[in-house]
Structures are given as C-alpha cells and as structure tokens.
Amino acid sequence: MQLDHPSVRKMWKEYLDNAGISRRNDPGHETWCFCDNEKDANKLAKLVLAGQKRGTTSSLEAMIQEGEPVPKPGDHSVVTDWKGVAVCVIKNEKVSVVPFDQVSEEFAAIEGEGDGSLEYWKKVHRAALSRELSSMGLVFHEETPVICEEFSVVYPR
Q: Which CA distances in Å does 134 have to 32, 82, 101?
C-alpha cells in the first residue's frame, strides 16, 4: 500500500481550503486504510463514505509496540483505499481505551460492519487483532486493551 499517493496531499489541501484553515494552523493528519487486506479495506472505506461506519478499533499494545501515538479526539486522518488513493478525511470525536471483552453493543453498531451486532464485531475483531498481535510476537486475549475511535467525515461532506 502506498501512503504518499498524490491524492492524499490533494485531498488534505482541499479539506484545509474548504474548512478555511490556513497552512500555519494545519492540524496535521495521519494517513491509513482499514484492515490488513484489499477486499475489506476497500469495503470499509465505502461504508465510511455511506455514513454507515463511524468508528474503528485498534490494539493499544500494537500501537505502543510500533511507537505510534495513541489517537485522541480532534485527530484528523486521510482514509485511503488499499492502493493508497484518498477516500475521505475523518476527525476523531471520541476515543476510549477498554478491554476487548468490555466493548459495548453501542460501539459495535457505530463501527457499522456486518449486521452491526456485538457478536459480529467480536468475531471479526478477535480474528484481526489476533493476526496483528501474532505478527508482532504478542498474544491476543479477551482482556486485550483496544482503542475505540468514533469519528465523523469532515471531507468531502
């Protein structure tokens, strides 16, 4: 996946211009795609654009291991498809860290995947987190701390 695709810079510039944010006050952004495979990454990006997906989950342990900052409210991201082409700009509205087994039905519905149930959410996230942590030599368990981000699409509207 290409994270420096020209469309990312173009979309971020358009967002700043449309929001009336000067370059001097640029809040900065991360660039990423959902999931660890092309089919799901592209599908989830489309769900965000459709307004169905308004949240995402990641492993706190993986972020720490990779030396990445923990997301916080107000953070911006340019979401891309699997090939790195910009899809939209999102802004975190709420971020919480909870044990995997304490994620709520409400948050599962906000993620907007599958049938929106907590059962579906646990099934797909248990598998994805297990793959990710295993690749880092870490082990997933039901109490694994996860970062639950709720976001809104700020560009395009």
A: 21, 22, 19
> What are the DSSP E strand ranges found in the chain?
30-32, 55-59, 76-80, 86-99, 145-155
DSSP H or E run through 147: strand 145-155
Q: Which amino acid is at 144?
A: T
Q: Is the pLDDT of residue 17 over 70?
A: yes
pLDDT for the residue numbered 3: 62
Return the DSSP state at 34. Answer: S
CA distances from 107 to 3, 57, 102, 132 (A): 28, 10, 10, 21
- Identify the three-state secondary structure at position 95: strand
Summarize pLDDT for 20-72 with one digit per residue, the tens: 999 999 999 999 999 989 999 999 999 999 999 999 999 999 999 999 999 99
Record the tokens describing residue 51, joined without a space: 């307004």
Contact 61, 134 (CB under 8 A): no
Pairing of strands 76-80, 30-32: parallel
The CA–CA distances, whole Å, from 137 to 31, 62, 130, 131, 132 equal: 25, 10, 10, 10, 9
Give percent of the chain with pLDDT exceeding 70: 98
